[in-house]
Design brief:
heterodimer, A: mainly alpha, 2 domains, two-stranded antiparallel sheet, two-stranded antiparallel ribbon, 10 helices, 53% helix, 6% strand, B: mainly alpha, Cytochrome C Oxidase, Chain A, 65% helix, globular
Amino acid sequence: MATILATEQLNETGQMPSVIEVPAPTAWPFILAFGTTLLFAGLVTSMSVSVLGAAFALAGCVGWFRAVFPHAQEEAVAVVPEDIRLTTDRRVVERIPVLPDQLRAWLPVRTYPVSAGVKGGIAGSVAMAVLACAYGVLKAGSIWYPINLLAAVVYRESLRLGPAQLYSFHADAFAIAFFLHGLVSIFVGLLYGAMLPMFPRRPVVLGGLIAPALWSGLLYTILGLLNPLLASHIDWFWFVASQVAFGIVAGLVVVRQQSIPTRENVSFVLRAGIEAPGTIPPRESGEERR
Amino acid sequence: MSSNAITLPGTQIQARPWVDELHQWLTTVDHKRLGILYILSALLFLAIGGVEALIIRIQLMHSHNNFVSPEVFNRMFTMHGTTMIFFVAMPVLFGFANYLVPLMIGARDMAFPRLNAFSFWLSFLGGLLLYFSFLGGSGLYGAGSAPDVGWWSYAPLGARAFSPGHSSDYWTLAVLVSGFGSIGTAINIIATILCLRCPGMKLNRMPLLVWMNLVMAGMVLFAVTPLSAAQIMLLIDRYLGGHFFDTQAGGSAVLWMHFFWIFGHPEVYILIIPCFAFMSEIIPVFSRKPIFGYPVMVAATVCIAFVSMSVWAHHMFTIGMNSYANSFFTLTTMAVGVPTGIKIFNWIGTMWGGRIQFKTPMLFSIGFLFQFLIAGLTGIMIAASPFDWQLSLSYFVVAHFHYVIVGGILFALFAAFYYWYPKMTGRMLSERLGKWHFWLFLIGFHLTFDVMHIPGILGMPRRIYTYEPGRGWDTLNLIITIGAFIQALAILVFLANLVISYFKGDRAGNDPWDAWTLEWSISSPPPAYNFATVPTVASRRPLWDLKHPEDPDSRYE
């Protein structure tokens, strides 16, 4: 194994070694690889090729063994003195003004806990489900209608439902639609929780209008491919309304949660709430951590 | 420009005779030389695989073409796919990992230098064995032929009854031999990163390139081993009368598919994660900002690695799995888009508000971002099993994965070439030729692979030898072929740039990009020992700390 000289430092002006030992070049790995390849190549050419490969491989193994035992062979390389200057012409550092008392900050300065995204996603999913079921009852006459359509995104059996069966309860389609809706809603809620602090000026406009509009536009173009059943039955007014309902409710729930300072740069020990002396070592310079 | 390496008078190294030089390269265990050997071998096979692609495109240029025979056409797409994945993409990424990882962590070499050499030579000789099949496909005394059953070698097509002679054996043995090399390299990368980091370089201070190569190497161990096992099982079937994949005798053809794709899909991430690594180093430097969301980038990479291990059967939607399996693999495949999206968001976040420098590496990086996003979106589309049933095995799928491999991986690789070539050779690549390369390749790429989606939607199957006129495919295929030749021209410009700049390029100095990671703290090319004194780091950007002692990162991490 290659070794390092752990005592040497980059910035120290102490003596530089005049020679450094590095692993010595050797042909044995090449010979072993060549022999191994010939060994296999013999299967498709001639037994004699395999025999030759085996001989090379054996020689390679022995040679390699002798090159590393009892001590790995190394060669001394003379250190070439160099004048390396690590400087930059870009001395001026432009800073985005974030906090008056800090030169640097992790953006966003404050964020929402993960639980805020989960809560937002669940609340949004309820709002969306209420509107979707209302659509089912008011326009289609069955609360199960939108649920069967949703399941068809990933569930082949739903695609096979006849027109009459779309209005009745199917446990498997319900379970899949419920799981899918919940999972995607929580994911989107988490995204809201992560992204809304980065667009702090008008969070509800972003979450409630812009994001649903983008998402609906994307789905409008590809829904026929993703879910032909839903595409053939969809009512776009109600669909967009349910997306907006999700966005507004999820956005409002998220932004009403207590925001916390971004702790990306804080050690896991601190984030985990472990309070014990010595868990956070002081800086080598003795400087206070910020 | 930040700094220059000056070799002091009286220390010039004498040129050696070329025989000595050749001997040095054959016996080297230096990670930098082996990295360069990996890269050169990949470029050799890239040229060969590229010619095969052009032959395929000429054949499909118009209907009822017979530029090559159907048998040769089958060999061409088989060899093209196998070459590009196993003997171009993997070696070139291993080459960059070999070269850069020790330099970035302040080490003097890889953990196992001799294993490193062994792994490279296995990979390279595996490629030569594959191409020897053109001479010896049916044995030394028969007429030769190369493998022709596709780069998946699906069962039962790979069985001796359907693939007589030795052509399929060459495919199996070559991939097996190179697979051993891949496993050796992966072990070496993991051991190097875990054991040889310089003082102060904790895991959370490692450059993202190192993190992502660590994840990639772990994935190689999990993904390549099942493939190697399957190759051995196939050999047993073909040579010893085994029945693993023989459906007539109680075996399972679907078993081969599972074995292949449990390698095949993680393989996509094995290839793309090092490209994420290049982006994570290049975009910050050319945006003049630190990477946005370092911990999230690491977490997203690990997340991608885990999720990507559970998506393989989305390649098998059309074989007739049950609804639950289809649903599971649809969901997991869509889920992998979340951490990937986080990465794209963070790279854009890094660029936001930055002083972006549109040098050639950054141009290729921006191309990567845009194209990989499109590739991801078409990936989400065919992750939906109903959609996949319509377009599986069509040119839409071919367009999708070439968008990933060419639009994503190859663009990122070109960015890496332009960024680290000065470190490897001490010379800058020509910016003028680089921009010609970029724009030609961009135009050729989009002509080829944007258009290729359309014949797929119109029903053109992949691997089709020729087609009837009047299906609306002719003009589209002509455009695709023209695009392929423009890409080939761009590659020629790139190769010319590599050669010309090696002899006549501007001197690079040690840090031509004013960058922040350790490899730029030593001369270009680095000496055999890398670091005369082993560095100590105190932050993720050690060179920033040295260049800005009044405001080092270490104060805030």
